[in-house]
Amino acid sequence: MCTFAELTSLHAELARISPHTGGAVRSYKAIAGCVGWPAPAQPVKAGAPVHGAPPALIVRSTHQALAPYSAGAAMAAQLPGSVVLGREGDDHSMFLVSKCVREATNRYLTTPALPAPGTTCTD
């Protein structure tokens, strides 16, 4: 287990080397390991289906450390008819940086048309 001072120093260093995310992506994993989180990681499993909800567009980064891509499939399994739109990358700011994600999201919110299952944006 680390001290609060060590944790603060670690976060400052991570924010320095990843200024656009403030160290958030890398720091969470480092901090969680540092503080000795007692629960082991468990695979993401789908819960019970939600009945009566409309199909959802679920946007996921393919390599995001804090929210694994498999969590999108688990959520889609709970919301019948939902689609996971992947974006090649490791960020949460997909709507801001990807024209493909922005267009698919805007289309879903205004029509509500979903992209084809398995669609991955690469921009």
What's a quick, concise take on this entry?
With 123 residues, this protein is mainly alpha-helical.
Describe it for me?
The protein has 123 residues and is mainly α. The protein has two domains: 4-34; 57-121, no CATH class. Helix content is 41%, strand content 10%. The protein has a three-stranded parallel β-sheet. Strand 1, helix 3 (69-78) and strand 2 form a beta-alpha-beta unit. The chain is globular, with a radius of gyration of 17 Å. The protein starts with a helix and ends with a strand. The mean pLDDT is 79.
Entry keywords:
123 residues, mainly alpha, 2 domains, three-stranded parallel β-sheet, 5 helices, globular
Q: Ranges with pLDDT <50 over ≥5 residues? A: none
Ends distance: 40 Å
Shape: globular
Biggest sheet strand order reads 1-2-3
Query: Could you state the order of secondary-structure elements as H and E?
Result: HHEHEHHE
How large is the radius of gyration?
17 Å
What is the percentage of strand-forming residues?
5-15%
- Sheet with the most strands, sense and barrel status: 3 strands, parallel
Number of continuous helical runs: 5
Instruction: Report mean pLDDT, rounded to a whole number.
Output: 79
Which percent range fits the helix content? 40-55%
Map the helices and strands.
Layout: H1 4-17, H2 24-34, E1 57-61, H3 69-78, E2 83-87, H4 94-97, H5 99-110, E3 120-121
